[in-house]
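Hey,
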Amino acid sequence: MEKTISLVLKNLSVGYKNSVLNGITTEINSPRLIGIIGRNGSGKSTLTKTLLKIIPPINGEILLNNKNINDFSVKEWATYFSAVFSGVPNVPHILVNELIDLGCNKNNPQKSEIIKWLKIEDLINKYADELSDGQLQKVMIARALNQNTPYIILDEPTNHLDYIAKDEIFSLIKEIVQNRQKTIFLISHEIEKVKNVADEIWLVENGKITNL
């Protein structure tokens, strides 16, 4: 079991020039699957981009083991947080096996297991820019898992997958939390599927977060 890490959001406000979410206060001390739901434009992605240190908080604090996010370098923060975004990215002409290793520890013993979990063994020697959207999304999930961070943000990770693949990914996400001691922030419009797997659900609405 990996060492537990404490993440605290303290009176946090997030946004760009103006805040879109305010007064977020919560503490996460154990691996959890947190489902984040809400209408488009409600601030879900803005919150996760703040957690990823892509945009700074407007007010309040994000504390990791009592250390403020502003005191971490971007490189150091990337050892704690990884992410998969909703849009399928443009990727270079690179082998899938190499793409999964980008920015990661190439000696991660979990890599082979991750590839098997996602059932992408037949893709690793293909070029990433030749894959379908659904295949590439699975590869990007594998890359995030291979980064081996305690926190993973998944922003609509099943957007480009069929119904069977969606069920597989949701089951996999739950298994990762339970067996790999990760905390996953899962943004999804698949509300019923989120309810079935999440340990807690954050409803983002009217500038606030409510625990359901």
